[in-house]
Amino acid sequence: MDIHQKEPREDADWRVYVLRLNHRRERDKRITTHCALVGRAFGALGMYYSGDQDEGLETAIKNVRINWGGAFSVQHVRNPVSFIKDWKKSGGSVVHLTMYGLPITKISELFQSTDRHKELLVMIGASKVPIGYYRLADYNLAIGHQPHSEVAALAVFLDRVFKGSELENEFENAKLRIIPQEAGKKLLRK
Amino acid sequence: MDIHQKEPREDADWRVYVLRLNHRRERDKRITTHCALVGRAFGALGMYYSGDQDEGLETAIKNVRINWGGAFSVQHVRNPVSFIKDWKKSGGSVVHLTMYGLPITKISELFQSTDRHKELLVMIGASKVPIGYYRLADYNLAIGHQPHSEVAALAVFLDRVFKGSELENEFENAKLRIIPQEAGKKLLRK
């Protein structure tokens, strides 16, 4: 299955995908799941991941899609370096989120650029990311220069890309929908 | 040890602390650590947590503080309900981040309010949060109404509170400091 959707969504200027590097099945199980959920909730179209293939992860995200709608899915890539090179060859851009990179304010350069950049791969590491990836990326961007979390970095990055509008995203074919409450839980089932 | 710093930081309008509910030592180890790191990096002053007491977590954050500076630390609370009640009695506000809550845009109400709200406790759940906490909170706020991650919710919430300025935070007594690079890693050690 190729999760790459060829038809652009009409409502999005940016078509963003996540690439999670070097997933370790046991150690990263929950963090990688959070990365995928954040990707989906904050407007990315899908997540690729390298490292251990993990059916549990793929199934968890599939179940979220079944219940909460949309088309977001997760796909394993065997060779992330050639994957990134192919992405760039076909005209897409690559951003690597790292505390060592340039401040996120530099994102404006990315935003000012042309169509070449409308298809965006956002790379986030699990373990230490080899220096080669820094060189492959078009931009190494830091969400602050303190140690924190790739989950948070991804969320804040996508929030900057979509300027907060992502928090109002609605997903097609959702079985579950929340009715916001001041102090309680209200979940509609279709 | 009480991590609550009585002296206000001069540079912050908001004094924010995190309360992580019901930490489970094995299952939540990494996610709770990410919550603490995000709290620190995004401008909170400390994190309280209930559930299993976890020396590994406390030591991990202590080591980050030793290397990266600042005064952020983590403290276990035995009874979160009385802790929250005491917080409110002493004039502080409590925000609970939950996908079931009102949209984060409602945060403006919180921001418009007076000194009563300058000391803020941000609650985030690990497992399912009992309904009583929704009633205890002054505000139940949703960072979108899709399932994602408390790590991301905390980051985006603090980013809204501090309006992006938190990403330029510098920490006192840091041994390590990053010099941002276009494509590489540069770490200064003092």
Structural notes for this entry:
The structure is a homodimer of 190-residue chains. In chain A, 35% of the residues lie in helices and 24% in strands. The first copy, chain A, is an alpha/beta fold. In chain A, a hairpin with an 8-residue loop joins strand 7 and strand 8 (187-189). Chain A is globular. The model of chain A is unreliable at 6-11 (pLDDT under 50). At the A-B interface, helix 1, strand 4, helix 5 and helix 6 of A face helix 1, strand 4, helix 5 and helix 6 of B.
The helix fraction of chain A, in percent, is 25-40%
> In one word, what is the shape of chain A?
globular
| Major beta sheet summary of chain A | 6 strands, parallel
Spatial sequence of strands, sheet with the most strands of chain A: 3-2-1-5-4-6
Question: Which pair of protein chains has the largest interface, and what are the residue counts?
Answer: A-B, 52 and 52 residues
- The DSSP helix count of chain A reads 6
The CATH superfamily of chain A appears as SPOUT methyltransferase, trefoil knot domain
Distance between the termini of chain A: 28 Å
Instruction: Give the uncertain stretches of chain A in residue-range form.
Output: 6-11
Note the run of SSEs of chain A as H and E. EHEHEHEHEHEHEE
According to DSSP, the number of beta strands of chain A is: 8
Based on CA atoms alone, the radius of gyration of chain A comes out at 16 Å
Work out the count of structural domains of chain A.
1
Oligomer: homodimer
Kindly identify the CATH topology of chain A.
Answer: Alpha/beta knot
Identify the CATH architecture of chain A: 3-Layer(aba) Sandwich
DSSP strand content of chain A: 15-25%
